[in-house]
Amino acid sequence: MASLQTAEQLRGITFFEGLPETLLWHLAKVAERRSLGIDEFLIREGDPREFFAVILEGNLAIERNDTADDGVPMRLATFGDGHVIAEGALLDGGHHGSSARAVRPTTVLVFARAALEPTLRDAPGLHAALVSRAAHVMSERLRGADAMLARGRSGPGFGGPTRREHDFLGDREVPDAALYGVQTLRATENFPITGVLLADFPELIIALAQVKEAAAQANMALGLLDAKLGAAIIRAAREVQHGRHHEHFRVDMIQGGAGTSTNMNANEVIANRALELLGHARGAYDVLHPNEHVNLSQSTNDVYPTAVKIALHRGIASLKDAMAALVGAFLRKGDAFAPHLKMGRTQLQDAVPMTLGQEFAAFAHTMQEDVDRLTEAQALIREINMGATAIGTGITAPVGYAEQVRAALSAVSGLTLITAPDLVEATADTGAFVQLSGVLKRCAVKLSKICNDLRLLSSGPRTGLGEINLPPMQPGSSIMPGKVNPVIPEVVNQVCFDVIGGDVTVTLAAEAGQLQLNVFEPVIAFRLLRNIQTLRNACVVLRERCVDGITPNPERMRQFVEHSIGIVTALVPVLGYAKCAEVAMDALHSGRGVYDLVLERGWMQRAELERALNPATMTGGTT
Q1: Contact 485, 459 (CB under 8 A)
Q2: 3-state helix, strand, coil in the chain (%, to 5)
Q3: Which terminal residue of the chain has fewer beta carbons within 10 Å of its beta carbon, N or C?
Q4: Residue of higher predicted confidence among 147 and 246
């Protein structure tokens, strides 16, 4: 009887379509039914391939450990009813490259290789059919991945069976394997803009989940949210904070609606995961609803800017670390290059002597100033407007909620957050974002100037300044043999240009806000998060692949000093401006050195002249 039931179930699965009844019967005889609880593994990464399986009911997350940060598994896909997994076991042995974990109660049919072998020997046609189908499934999944990459990964991103969901615009079919719901589905269709998704900014997803957890805690404390539902929401939100389910955040970063699609993406993912944890099917919103429960006492207009600020705070901390490390690299070079005398230059003309150490120490100090400015910007974005709801009046949020959620969010995020004194003003105002963008522009301008100097100082190497050597990274020309270009400063320059342009975007978006809300916060968030991300990466690359490997050319620098007219400036306190100008012009026209011309005129004794032109004297005796 069990085999008959299993054969009937196999008949309704696409993978087995077209197989004769006799072959289905053979398969049914060896199938093993397994039930998996939430978070129970069917397959662990590294296990030998000993079976393939079919999902009868439920969902399995396919995850890898070796591609994740901080030990958090990376979700590769989510499979649901009717999907075949581990089909590679039909093609060869080896070991699994990923794990399969149940994200809700799941029932599977397992077909062990050892149990199948006698059947496959007796029915070679079955073996050929299964291998052909396994190869086809693998091909289709690879094609789907390629298509997703080709269209910028926009779109739903999940196939297979669907469930029907409803909003006030009507009913839609949502992939059953998706944790998001109908409103996220609509957003993926409406905003195929950049191909850069929420999933590309995990710090924003984590911040959204922190806001949702804090809101659930506050609502439970105020008696607004059932404890069982609240606990499920908090557990789901914490899973998101630990890196799970990020592949379900499918909305494009640039979107209409002031961030509503982002907020609803978070509401739906957390709601559906909470439903699974409670033992219900995804989409059972009569039990736990994205708006009524996950979004309780909230509006996009306080959730979104608050989450963005928390994400920015975390991003700024990472950028500051990268900049501080770059500062350290420049300071180390400043110490190492302290003995090397060179000519300083203003307006690209010879000025007065300095040391290469002074030049590199100055690079460090100018970057350190911006680390301090970023710290000030961090303080400003710790002011939040949770409890403001729609426009700052707190409609739908009970008395005491704003303070409850602030305290909870401070604890969850680890940040000392402050509720804005005027929530109406805070909901409409984007001044903190504009100020931060200005600081990022300042960082970019100064970093780009440093890269300009590095390229100029290393120019040549024979016919330019050639005072320093940048580490060679790659061949520089497809036609000129032996040419090596300063590619690392060049790429950092381009990052800085992009950040400066992003500041214009933020400025225009902030100015375009109207009345009680700025609807353009999505592009502000996108530019700020991306600018921080690329600036951080640029600082790391510049330090590791350029600054750490810079070497000096002392003889080249000394040659410039000895032949420079600029050293005459050191004699002005002794000879006066007019005599020094006369010597300078004579040196320029005759090609002779300042030292010899002064001695020839008898204006100074040799010992006196040597003291005046001593490197320590000319460079202020500092490095």
Answers
A1: no
A2: 55, 15, 30
A3: N
A4: 246
User: How close are the terminal C-alpha atoms of the chain, in Å?
Assistant: 89
Alpha carbon separation from 453 to 332, 389, 468, 486, 543 (Å, rounded): 18, 50, 11, 11, 15
Q: Which one is catalytic: 318, 477, 478, 590?
A: 477
Counting Cα atoms < 13 Å in the Cβ hemisphere of 293 gives 26
- H helices present in 337-482, as ranges: 356-380, 401-413, 423-428, 431-457
CA gap 89, 50 in Å, rounded: 6
Q: Does 413 participate in catalysis according to the annotation?
A: no
pLDDT of residue 228: 97
pLDDT of residue 157: 58
Taking Cα atoms as reference points, which of 101, 45, 44 lies closest to residue 77? Answer: 101
Q: How many CA atoms lie within 13 A of 195 on its CB side?
A: 7
| 3-state class (DSSP) for residue 14 | helix
CA 217 – CA 227 distance, rounded (Å)? 9
One-letter identity of residue 497: F
Distance CA 415, CA 509 (A): 27
Structure tokens at 546: 């350029």
Beta-bridge partners for 175: 162
- The position carrying tokens 């099917």 is 281
CA nearest 517: which of 302, 265, 334, 358?
302
2: confidence class by pLDDT, cuts 50, 70, 90: low
Structure tokens at 180: 């998001």
- C-alpha distances in angstroms, 519 versus 267, 509, 561? 20, 9, 58
Cα 354 to Cα 144: distance, rounded to the nearest angstrom: 61
Is residue 485 over pLDDT 60? Answer: yes
**76-87 as b/e, with b when 16 or more CB fall inside 10 Å?**
ebbbbbbbbbbb
pTM (two decimals): 0.76
- Residue in the block written with tokens 């050319």: 553
